[in-house]
Amino acid sequence: MSIKVVTPFNDKETDHVYRVGDEYPAKGFEASSERIEFLSKPHPETKKVYLFVEENQSKKDLKSDVDNEEEFPQSTGGGWYLLSNGEKIQGKEEALAAEKALKSGE
Question: What is the model's pTM?
Fold first, then answer.
């Protein structure tokens, strides 16, 4: 499982600063499954998603991801989709509309 930061944040539990693209948790730190789950869902106040959890994939799936790396929204499972700005939206149609609005600058 690979966990990547999709929105920068200062981890209140460790005071470590994470930037987009960083692995989570950083070397020397540990994170509970509850903490990872909390950071990978829309935050109750900010509505932002901070982590993207990627389950182990086969080589074929990895090649497909590289080919489609810049295509958004990306399905994260369970009906949730990751937008290009790091937000998660539930529902494919809603995610497509939100991504279209992002690209058009609305």
Answer: 0.53
Instruction: Encode pLDDT of 42-85 as tens digits.
Output: 999 999 999 999 876 444 454 444 444 468 888 888 888 888 88
Whether 48 and 20 have beta carbons less than 8 Å apart is answered as no
What DSSP character marks residue 65?
A: H
Q: 85, 102 in Cβ contact below 8 A? A: yes
Q: Which is nearest to 42 in space by CA: 106, 92, 101, 89? A: 89
Cα(40)–Cα(50) distance, integer angstroms: 6
Report whether 25 contacts 18 (CB < 8 A). Answer: no
Distance CA 13, CA 36 (A): 12
CA distance 36 to 55: 13
